[in-house]
Each structure stands twice: as C-alpha cells, then as structure tokens.
Amino acid sequence: MVNRKSLDPDSSPEAAFGEHLRRLRDQRGWTQDELGARMGCTGTHISAVETGRRPPTSRFAFSADRAFGTGDKFQRMVSSLKNPALLEGFPEFVRQEAKAAEIRLYEVGVVPGLLQTPEYAAALMEGAVKRGAITSEQRQERQKLVAQRQASLIREPLPLVFVVLDESCLRRPIGDDAVMDAQFQRLLEFAELPNTVVQVAPFSMGARRPLSLPVTIVTMPDRSIRSYAESAHRGHLERETPFVLPMLTSYHQLQAEALSQAASVAMIDQLRKGGTP
C-alpha cells in the first residue's frame, strides 16, 4: 500500500490502540471506509485514529468492539488510556516493564509496587483515599494494576530484577504491625529468588547518594534501555539512550554505595523482629 504509515505500538497508548485497530481490520480484509461504515463513522476518522492523529473516544471503542466482536477489548484500552488513577506516562511504562529482560529500580518512602504484599498495597491506597488523593474506584484500579505487574514477572525467561530501597522504605510504617511484618517477610523471600538482588541505601550514605528521586531503568530484550521517573503530577518514559545512560551510571554508583544484599537482608530481618539496626 502506497504511503502507509508505520506504527509503533510502544510509542504511546494511542498508538497501541491504533495499531490494534489496523491489525484487526487488515486481518478481515476491510478498507478504512468499510470499517467506518460498520462503525458509523468515516474512513477518514478511522485513518486518523489508526495513525494516532485523533484519540479514540469511549463511543468509538464501543463501536469497534461491536464491529470486530472483541467483547470490551477496545473499551478497556480506552479506559486505561484515560484512567485518572494513573500518572501520565505510567501505562506506557508498564507495557515496557512487562517485556524487559532486566529491571533496575530505586524507591524512596514506600516499598515499590512490584514487591508489595496485597495488604501493604491496600493500606497504602486506603490512606490515599482518606486524604482525598484518589477515589475508591481509583484505588481498586491501582490495586489491580499492582497484581498485574507482579504477575508479569513470572515469565520465561525470568527477568533480572535489581532493587535498591532507600532506608525510608523500611522505616515508614504502612498499616499495622501485621502488615509490616508480612511485608518484611515478602522482601526477604524476594531477595532469595535466583533472578533478584535487593539492597538498602542507608541514611548514612548522606551526600554520597547519587539519586534523590525514585527511578526505574529497564533493559529490553534487544538491549535497548529506557528509564521511567515521576514528579508529583506526571511520569516520564525516556527512550533516548543518550539521556538514559547517565541515569544508568548513577544507578550503578548507587548500587556500589548501598549495603550488600547480605547486609540488607540482615537489616530487614532485624526490623521484622522489632530490633533497631
């Protein structure tokens, strides 16, 4: 086909929607005008959605599901695209994380979602609901996403997962003692897995700490690297290697300065037992 625009489904949620729409249309041998007739819109509208020039609406997604017989597939894609419970950029990052060969993450203040127990996640989200930061419906969506992200780690081949926790992640109580005890136990079990490394960046690192904000760096199967970082109101997925490499260097420096896994496990275990490392 002449002048057919190539699509990168990983470039944005809109692109993923458009690529899926085009792929199903091609499989059925329909033109854009023919699909438009089935959905009650024009072929030009179909083209604009497929190429990411026009965002899909809930009504458009409903019509697409009806035309292709895909249940609520397209509607769920639009729902996640517009989900206000998630920071901008985060849904796209989650898709990259689920395919990564290596995951390196650094967290401050709370245990990261990939390592949270259901009870810890629930207590964390309940606090956000009480503060009015999110709604009860958004809490359910976030808890569901935590479970989905953890499930995505159980695949072949297993991804390598490197975790550096700021000491504040361990010191900040979330929920009651039973919740924290189970969370500490979860961290200890995670550290025993053959594909993981868990380290603690102690407060004593002081100014030697090269990273101040949470960050995740993923290495894809083709060895390309991407990073994800958050501000208070949005997330940013960086794909350009020249911008990711300095962050990767800082992460390696962080690992070198942090406690060894053996010392980190000892600290977590002592805290679980109620001691003061």
Question: How would you describe this protein?
Answer:
The chain has two domains: 13-81, 434 Repressor (Amino-terminal Domain) (Orthogonal Bundle); 90-272, Endonuclease, Chain A, CATH 3.30.870. β4 and β5 (225-230) form a beta hairpin. The protein has twelve helices and six strands. The model has no long low-confidence stretch (mean pLDDT 88). It is α/β, with parallel strands linked by helices and 277 residues long. The protein has helices at residues 13-28, 32-39, 43-50, 58-68, 73-81, 90-97, 118-130, 136-152, 167-171, 177-191, 241-257, 261-272; strands at 102-107, 160-166, 196-201, 215-219, 225-230, 235-238. The longest helix has 17 residues, at 136-152.
Number of strands: 6
Global morphology: elongated
Distance between the termini: 66 Å
CATH fold call of the largest domain: Endonuclease, Chain A
Domains, number: 2
Structural class: alpha/beta
User: What is the mean pLDDT?
Assistant: 88
What is the CATH class of the largest domain?
Alpha Beta
Helix content: 40-55%
Name the strands of the widest sheet in spatial order: 3-2-1-4-5-6
Which percent band covers the strand fraction? 5-15%
Instruction: Give the SSE string.
Output: HHHHHHEHHEHHEEEEHH
Poorly predicted segments: none
Over all CA atoms, what is the radius of gyration? 22 Å
